[in-house]
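Write out the 3D structure for:
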Amino acid sequence: MSSSGEGTPPSRRAGEIAAWVSAITAVIGLLLAVFGVPLVGGSSVNRSVADHAGAPAASSTPPPPETDTPGSPAATGEPGTGPSASSRPSQPSRPSQPSPPAVPKGWHRIGEPGLTVAFALPDGWSRKERNDIQSNWTSPDGAHDMSVKRDTSYGATARAASAGQLAWYRDTVKSSMAGLKAVTHTTRQNGRDALWLEIDYHWAGQSEPRKRVEVFVAGTAGRVYQLLFDTTADSGKLAAQQRLFATARAQLLIDRP
């Protein structure tokens, strides 16, 4: 009789098939253990591969060092442990002052860089004197005098400067002013506290009364600025003096570079 499979009983054939399946399963299990072949899609339970779409791949190498960006400690040369820009003291700035109105018709602006000041004058006025501390001007008819002064002689505040200047005026030998009567007013000038003097006097050896109006305002670096107008004390000239003084005060610019 032939020994071919045709004569093999069904029970034996089923056993052989089961043995082969068992052997193949064992081989597949060994391959999975050795090579780590991923499961379908590499996704975990109840998660889709699409959940990681666009996410950066994980890496076992450390990230590259951060580059210097504008404003970072490395880019600015500042130590990372130093104070932040907001905590560092800022450079002192000049006190702000309001901008003057437009120069009125019939006036023009004058700059005195040596005195760090700018001001306006009526057309036709001429300079009488300029030195390290003041610039003096007179009207065409000689009836009105004007002066801008920047000084540190009497202190760094408007009050100290006005007191020192007034004491000098009262010394007739130095100032040639006599019969002096002064009234002091508090005011504002260039956005700051200021003092305004009204002085009635006459020149020594003369009897004609005169009027001087003067404002003091402190600037930077301990300097005090003075703006004054002086005229004879008759009604017409006094009214003109008030207008001149008010306009000049509005145009005054101190601490100019």
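The longest strand covers residues 177-189.
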